[in-house]
Amino acid sequence: MSDPYELTLGVPSVEVFRRLRTDAGLSVKAPEAVALALANTWHGVVLHHEGEPIGMGRIIGDGGTALQIVDMCVHPAHQGRGLGKRMMAALAEELESRAPATAYVSLIADGPARHLYEKFGFADTATHDSIGMYRVMDRGPGRSGSQA
Fold first, then answer.
1. What parts of the chain have a pLDDT lower than 70?
2. Helix and strand tally (H, E) in the chain?
3. What pLDDT does residue 126 have?
4. pLDDT value of residue 111
5. Around 29, how many Cα atoms within 13 Å sit in the side-chain half-sphere?
């Protein structure tokens, strides 16, 4: 029996990226923002099922001191089959081969995904007197984009 899943290097199209995120329950991103993001990917993988993209993951960053794993997702109909682990293994392999030894690699683990990332050597930052923080650049009506 052949494996119906194929992992390829690269990034999906803007449209596929947006669909994969929303199918997996991640937030919607504007097409213009996605086009910029994909062009600045350090390394990416796309998972296909019988030729159809059903998952992805990317590494972004400066390539030297700071890298981040982002956009890890698998369509819900294909979850629970070790596909996230397969994508993460490919990303980890690239980090091992190209990232400098002193690079800081981070990610945000949603819910039980933390268990997957722990298998690849990631640890909770809170146990090291660090805390993850974020800011969304919401410039909707009446917002200037500043927090002041």
1. 140-148
2. 4, 5
3. 85
4. 82
5. 21
Cβ pair 47, 86 in contact under 8 A: yes
Q: CA-CA distances (angstroms) from residue 43 to 8, 50, 57, 135?
A: 11, 23, 9, 24
Q: Which of 48, 135, 143 is nearest to 87 (CA)?
A: 48
* SS3 call for 105: strand
Q: Cα separation of 94 and 97, whole Å?
A: 5
Distance CA 21, CA 25 (A): 6
Residue with tokens 């980090």: 95
- Output the six-digit token pair for 89: 């293994």
Rounded alpha-carbon distances, angstroms, from residue 14 to 11, 35, 78, 85, 101: 9, 6, 21, 24, 32
